[in-house]
Amino acid sequence: MDAPPPVLEDLARSVLELDREGAVRAAGEALLAGVPPETAITAGLAEGMRRVGERFAAKVYFVPEVLVAGRIFYAAMEVLAPHVARQPDAAGTMVCAVVEGDFHDIGKNIVKLMVEAAGFRVVDLGKNVPAERILEAVERERADLVGLSTLMTPTLDRMARTVKILKERTSAAVLVGGAPVDRAFAAKIGADGTAPDAAGAVALAREFAGRRRR
After folding, report:
1. Which of 17, 70, 87, 122 is least surrounded by Cβ atoms within 10 Å, i.e. has the fewest?
2. Which pTM value belongs to this model?
3. What total of structural domains would you count in the chain?
4. What CATH number does residue 197 fall under?
5. Are strands 173-177 and 193-194 parallel, antiparallel or unpaired?
6. Sign (positive/negative) of CA torsion 165, 168, 172, 174?
7. Residue 111's domain spans which residues?
8. Which ranges constitute the DSSP H helices of 17-155?
């Protein structure tokens, strides 16, 4: 198996070390090196944010450092995002949101970018979104899919409540994700699926959208 390009480690390390200039420079170098922008985002920038999360959990980093890392992540994303290959035909409509009580939206934003690139129209409701507002958007947009995320264990019950409301009131497929979410939890709350990363989320979106068209 080929080793990952060194620039991916440069991206991850720059985010971890709160080096904005290094992250932006590495993003440009990744493009010049022919690294797919999707890979640079998921295996570089997102990996860096994962490491930031580890330092936060270990009380090495605190909220100010996490906020700085987030701004660096988005600065590098601005370099990469315009180069993500996009499919021209609409594959369906997805409503995505971070559930009520959670303000962490980096994972949701990566999934949004990748799902849009796959040809879906994405209605992004943002973060800290109540279940009722998500339901309204799904009904208004006649969405095929819903993507829900949370990064925190205390808001898993909000995710469960949101899934319950959506499954009772709509026919949209509900996909869930985030660090504390696994297949067992997704099945327990009645979600249609979960994926460990953005590429998996795109595959699930295509699968369920395809089912609805048949």
Report:
1. 87
2. 0.77
3. 2
4. 3.40.50.280
5. parallel
6. positive
7. 92-213
8. 20-32, 37-39, 46-57, 63-80, 106-117, 131-141
